[in-house]
Amino acid sequence: MTWDWGAVADFLPYFGKGLVVTLEALALGSLISFGLGLVWTLLMRAPTRWVRWPVGVFTEFVRDTPLLVQLFFLFYVLPEAGVTLSPLTTGVLGLGLHYSTYTMQVYRAGIEAVPAGQWEAATALSLPVRRTWTAVVLPQAVRRVVPPLGNYVIAMLKDTPMLMTIGVLEMLGRARLVSQQHFQFTEPLTVIGIAFVVVSYLASLLLRTLERRLVR
Length: 216
Hints:
Blueprint: H1 5-44, H2 49-63, H3 67-77, H4 87-112, H5 116-124, H6 129-159, H7 171-182, H8 186-215
Helix pairs in contact: 1-4, 1-6, 1-7, 1-8, 2-4, 3-4, 4-6, 6-8, 7-8
């Protein structure tokens, strides 16, 4: 097998566009998953089961079905109900919704790890519920949830190639397109594989740095 550096050079502009789309989907999907995950967690702590039960059923259903099926549902079924989204918007929403059911479990574990004495102290000081959460519980829980949340960010990065199935030209989509046009598969796919390794490694370094700062 010979390595064609000219093919690599020709592919790099397409790779750059695919990298931007991949990082955009990852960033927006992560924000959605973090926000929705916290919402699910708080709803599951509601005093009435008529709130907890629907949320529990929905999140369990999402967690137990493949991401690819969910992407197809959002992209092909929602338009029949009058809701049409762009491929990238659909992909971001699918990633965020799917992973929010996992970040929900991370938040739950982090909140439950806050010592009972902290809750009791907030009650003894007659702190309002909102103040208890924002000043006592969440600051302590955040320190515990950063490492597992970071793991899900990296897992989400590895799942971004699934967006290719609904027409999003992220890194793998670009590589596949170029490979089919030029009948050269080795160089584009190798570059994509290396890119995923590099991005995952840089993300892990960033998360470890954030974790060390939060522990201080």
